[in-house]
């Protein structure tokens, strides 16, 4: 059975609403139970929605360990361990493996562009430093570079590289990944929630869906409808992802998503600084969106 299938939720990292903005473990426990009970196939800590870029390595390990303990094997737990530095990514990957992560998600180095050869070296070194399955993570709008299908083709030869997640939103790139891994046991996952149906039709084995933090059941039902060939139901559910996406565009990731969860009764707190609280008037739009999904709010 492949490790990277179904709806994997890149869960938000809850913080306290005070000057320290430390991680709130109580809120995390509530969220984990919600995600599992509403049909998530996996939970992924420290993706973009998990604010990996503003958390320390120690926070990542402590929090991921807590999530792994709370999930207790009910679904796989993936941990984001990529970094700008190969050394840091290797250290973090080894630590995540040691605490029992089922798999790792490795983003490419960001900030300064590197050559494809350097990128291959990074991915291969990180993957070979552990034994657990590794998923490559492409999100060009955030990293400033697209991981090319050629890089994926070469890195896919490493035994424990088992997945690649494409959040480019570019379906030609997505198809390039599918071609690149043909004949291997590497899964290609979609990271653009508006394109889940399109990606499934092309051969995606799963979706890493940020919106599923809140509308877990909608996204899980969408995936199930796609898998069972219920086209009209899938069409309806794919359209059902749009109201939350419209609201998420009103702020920086994951500011409005966290606010929506908070208003829905999951005290996940704010995004970490420099991202501030949502702008005036956004709460009303979030409440209208929660009403659309019939989610009770405070």
UniProtKB/TrEMBL annotation:
Signal peptide: none annotated. SUPFAM superfamilies: Aldolase. The keyword Lyase applies. The active site is at residues 137, 165. InterPro entries: Aldolase_TIM, DapA-like, Schiff_base-form_aldolases_AS. Keywords: Lyase, Schiff base. It comes from the Bacteria. GO terms for molecular function: 4-hydroxy-tetrahydrodipicolinate synthase activity. GO terms for biological process: small molecule metabolic process. Pyruvate binds at residue 208. PANTHER family: 4-HYDROXY-2-OXOGLUTARATE ALDOLASE, MITOCHONDRIAL, DIHYDRODIPICOLINATE SYNTHASE. Belongs to the DapA family. This is Dihydrodipicolinate synthase family protein. It comes from Thermophilibacter immobilis.
């Amino acid at each position: 059975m492949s490790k990277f299938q179904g709806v994997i939720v890149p869960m938000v990292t809850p913080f306290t609403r005070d000057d320290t903005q430390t991680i709130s473990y109580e809120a995390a426990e509530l969220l984990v139970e919600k995600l599992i009970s509403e049909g998530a196939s996996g939970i992924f800590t420290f993706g973009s929605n998990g604010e990996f870029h503003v958390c320390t390595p120690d926070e990542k390990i402590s929090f991921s360990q807590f999530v792994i303990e709370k999930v207790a094997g009910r679904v796989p737990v993936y941990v984001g361990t990529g970094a700008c530095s190969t050394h840091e990514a290797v250290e973090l990957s080894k630590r995540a493996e040691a605490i029992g992560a089922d798999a790792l998600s490795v983003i490419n180095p960001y900030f300064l562009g590197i050559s494809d050869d350097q990128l291959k070296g990074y991915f291969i070194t990180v993957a070979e430093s552990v034994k657990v399955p590794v998923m490559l993570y492409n999100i060009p709008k955030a990293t400033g570079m697209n991981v090319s299908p050629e890089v994926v083709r070469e890195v896919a030869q490493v035994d424990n590289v088992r997945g690649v997640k494409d959040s480019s939103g570019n379906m030609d790139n997505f198809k390039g990944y599918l071609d690149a891994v043909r004949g291997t046991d590497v899964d290609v996952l979609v990271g653009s929630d508006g394109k889940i149906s399109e990606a499934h039709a092309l051969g995606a084995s799963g979706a890493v869906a940020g919106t599923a933090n809140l509308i877990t059941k909608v996204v899980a039902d969408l995936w199930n409808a796609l898998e069972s060939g219920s086209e009209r139901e899938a069409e309806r559910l794919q359209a059902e992802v749009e109201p939350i996406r419209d609201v998420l565009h009103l702020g920086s990731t994951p500011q409005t998503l966290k606010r929506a969860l908070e208003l829905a009764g999951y005290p996940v707190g704010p995004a970490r600084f420099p991202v501030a609280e949502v702008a005036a008037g956004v709460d009303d739009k979030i409440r209208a969106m929660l009403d659309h999904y019939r989610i009770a709010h405070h």
